[in-house]
Design goal:
By secondary structure, the chain is an alpha+beta fold. The protein contains ten helices and five strands; from the N terminus they run αβαβααβαββααααα. The chain has a domain of 132 residues: Alpha-Beta Plaits, CATH 3.30.70.1730. Strand 4 and strand 5 form a beta hairpin. The chain starts with 5 loop residues before the first helix and ends with a helix. The C terminus is likely disordered.
């Protein structure tokens, strides 16, 4: 392009930016599609984060120089590019949903031909895009993943609910059997409680302690004994 016009330079720069920013770029041929059909295709792509734009092949080739030769070879005939960019809510576009929207639209509009494109900078042919369109959308995959994560949690909840119930059944079984069985078999002598003394020791503890015959009464003192002896002497003298 010798001395390109400013508007063409602007378009080349625009395409370069979109090629660099988009997760996927899909090349289509729209020969035979009406203006209304193209407008409907744009509407169908928008919820998935896809946009659809017609560019001159020469300008797209200029923007894609040094990017991918196989991609540039697709730029023949009436060409429009479908970019995976952002949804109206500002979320990242879903390449699977965009590919699926193109495939579904082509079923009712055979004039739309999906040729191939770029996915994360790598060339992908028409068959690859067709297989990509058969993958379930991201929302469905996320829902299934959430279900897989939630399944073990529900099983855990069931186990936690079963614990008190199983414990109750176990206690009831013990009651029906008359209580728990002894912890271990031990000899009768060893199983007696520590605070029960043998029978012989118990009888010995009940017997009165022997009292010394010559011991004075507890309330007698040496002085009272001497007074008694003196009284006995006076009686004999009288």
């Amino acid at each position: 392009m010798d001395n390109p016009r400013p508007e063409k330079v602007a378009i080349v720069e625009e395409v370069k930016g979109r090629l660099a920013a988009a997760e996927a770029v899909m090349v289509t041929e729209y020969r035979g599609l009406t203006v209304d059909a193209v407008s409907q295709l744009r509407i169908n792509l928008r919820p998935a984060g896809g946009s659809y734009k017609v560019y001159k092949n020469t300008l797209v080739r200029r923007a894609a120089e040094g990017l991918n030769d196989e991609f540039s070879e697709l730029l023949v005939g009436p060409t429009a590019l479908a970019f995976t960019e952002a949804t109206p809510e500002g979320e990242a576009g879903d390449v699977v949903s965009v590919a699926k929207a193109l495939k579904d639209f082509a079923k009712d509009n055979p004039n739309l031909i999906v040729k191939g494109g770029l996915f994360e900078g790598q060339f992908i042919d028409a068959e690859g895009l067709n297989q990509l369109a058969d993958i379930e959308p991201r929302e469905v995959l996320l829902a299934k993943l959430a279900g897989m994560i939630a399944a073990p949690m529900s099983q855990m909840a069931g186990l936690l609910q079963a614990l008190p119930r199983d414990m109750a059944y176990g206690l009831k079984a013990l009651v029906d059997q008359g209580g728990a069985a002894p912890a271990a078999d031990v000899p009768a002598e060893e199983s007696a409680p520590a605070d029960e003394a043998p029978a012989d020791d118990a009888e010995a503890s009940d017997a009165p302690a022997p009292v010394a015959e010559d011991a004075p009464a507890a309330d007698e003192t040496p002085e009272s004994t001497e007074d008694a002896a003196a009284a006995a002497d006076e009686t004999e003298e009288s």
